[in-house]
Write a structure and sequence with these properties.
The chain is of the alpha/beta class. The protein has 2 domains: about 180 residues, Rossmann fold (3-Layer(aba) Sandwich), CATH 3.40.50.2000; about 180 residues, Glycogen Phosphorylase B (Rossmann fold), CATH 3.40.50.2000. The protein has 14 helices and 13 strands. The strands form 2 sheets. A 7-stranded parallel sheet has the order 3-2-1-4-5-6-7, sandwiched between helices. The protein has a 6-stranded parallel sheet with strand order 10-9-8-11-12-13, sandwiched between helices. Helix 13 runs parallel beside helix 14. The longest helix is centred in the N-terminal third of the chain and has 19 residues.
Length: about 375
């Protein structure tokens, strides 16, 4: 059977209405398939979006089925049923499950056919996995695609999976969008900062469920940092239900004049904010990868992450930035002081253009496309008799 007769099902939680790391990653996967395999037909089953932004891809060989208008209490059952019925009627040659939550449906749908299915694992969704049906689905998958070595290694340690079954497809980013630029006068005035004032930045969703991202730890480190760098300012970009608690923590440490919570900012201002800082810091311990690290690096910024999650991959084991114990306030303090004072023992972080080129070489979209194309050649799309 020729490739132009072949259909891929891509099952996603959402792509458009909410823009987080998983959504951006899955958009990149779809875009890479489109560019490398333009002859394939792609049917996207989307659980949560209502369909208002389907023109994102604007390509003839992509079709969408949206389920975001289904009432919440029926949504899971309705979506699972439609996945199963769509599989039986349309007979795809490959199912790409964009989240492990859909893997059980892929397992049951493909169990009695020759159709292969892949599962994308992002991070915390696949760590400490206890659900027996999801475990079975993982082991029966033709390919498990991991966004980081960290998640791959955890799966190998926690589940009885053949190492050859898991392949790495690291997160990518838009190098044309994230570029080195001077500090924005507009933002300096907005936040009452001076051009030479040292600025620490975190970009994260401020959700109670995402407190592992480490902004608390940076806030707690600030009093010690200020002893050596009195005018340092910490900027936290993001919105969420954790905002009031963070404000209370800032007040309790009497840091109101040294921490700014920006709340929501529009997409067109995110690059300006990266370029406003002198160091990007997110000492997380629950990131599957962390695209924000790549975005900061592409803007030529020294970057700090935790050594207990996917930041290890994003910062290439410390080659591209500083990796510290996210539970150790003293380590965070010491590393940030050294970075801001220009004494951190990694000269690359002080060479913006070289840092940017390095992250493009390793994680740019061309490398991402090349890796995905190789995976699809190694694990070819199925055929129906």
């Amino acid at each position: 059977m020729k490739n132009n007769d072949k259909l891929i099902h891509v099952w996603v939680p959402n792509l458009f209405d909410f823009k987080g790391g998983i959504q951006i990653y899955l958009q990149d996967v779809i875009q890479a398939i489109v560019e490398d395999f333009p002859e394939l037909k792609i049917q996207i089953y989307n659980k949560l979006d209502k369909g208002n932004n389907a023109k994102f891809f604007n390509i003839d060989n992509i079709s969408f089925k949206f389920h975001g208008k289904t009432p919440g209490n029926l949504q899971i059952i309705h979506f699972a049923w439609n996945l199963l019925m769509g599989f039986l009627i349309e007979k795809p040659h490959l199912v790409l499950s964009g989240h492990i939550n859909f893997a059980p449906v892929a397992y049951f749908a493909c169990r009695f056919t020759s159709t292969p299915y892949w599962i994308v694992v992002h991070g915390i969704d696949a760590w400490d996995l206890k659900n027996p049906i999801k475990q079975k689905a993982l082991k029966a998958a033709a390919k498990i695609v991991s966004v980081s070595n960290y998640t791959r290694d955890r799966l190998l340690k926690e589940q009885n999976i053949d190492p050859n079954q898991i392949s790495l497809l690291p997160v990518t980013f838009d190098a044309n969008r994230f570029e080195i630029a001077p500090k924005s006068t507009l933002l300096l005035e907005r936040y009452g900062l001076t051009p030479k004032q040292p600025i620490i930045l975190t970009v994260a969703r401020l959700s109670r469920s995402d407190a592992y991202k480490g902004y608390d730890q940076v806030i707690r480190a600030l009093p010690q940092i200020r002893q050596q760098i009195p005018d340092v300012h910490y900027l936290i970009v993001g919105k969420g239900d954790d905002h009031p608690r963070i404000e209370e923590l800032v007040r309790s440490l009497n840091l109101q004049n040294h921490v700014t919570l920006t709340g929501f900012i529009p997409d067109e201002e995110i690059v300006l904010h990266y370029n406003l800082c002198d160091v990007f810091a997110m000492p997380s311990k629950g990131e599957g990868f962390g695209i924000v690290y790549l975005e900061a690096l592409a803007c030529g910024k020294p970057t700090l992450g935790g050594n207990q999650d996917g930041a290890i991959d994003a910062l290439c084991n410390g080659e591209l930035g500083a990796l510290i114990n996210p539970d150790d306030i003293n380590q965070i303090t010491e590393a940030l002081i050294k970075i801001l004072q220009g004494t951190y023992p990694n000269p690359l972080i002080y060479q913006p253009e070289a840092l940017r080129q390095k992250v493009i070489d390793i994680f740019g979209f061309e490398r991402f496309k090349q890796t995905l194309a190789e995976l699809m050649k190694i694990s070819p799309i199925g055929s129906h008799s």
